[in-house]
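[User] At your convenience, examine this fold.
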Amino acid sequence: MEAYLTQDQVDWLWQVRAAAVARRLEHVQSAVVRLALDELAARMSPEEVAEALAAQERPATGQARGRRR
């Protein structure tokens, strides 16, 4: 599975990792994703998540859409 994160999200994940290292926790990135998905699932239905995603403006990735011809 791939996830495309913003720089702010990556920076925050590094802060979480640093806090976890102090507690000798391992595999923090995967644990953060699982925790976030569990929290999201408790708050929203799959349909609500899809609706919220559709309402968001897509960030520019710098990549062209579609396959090159």
About this structure: The mean pLDDT is 88.
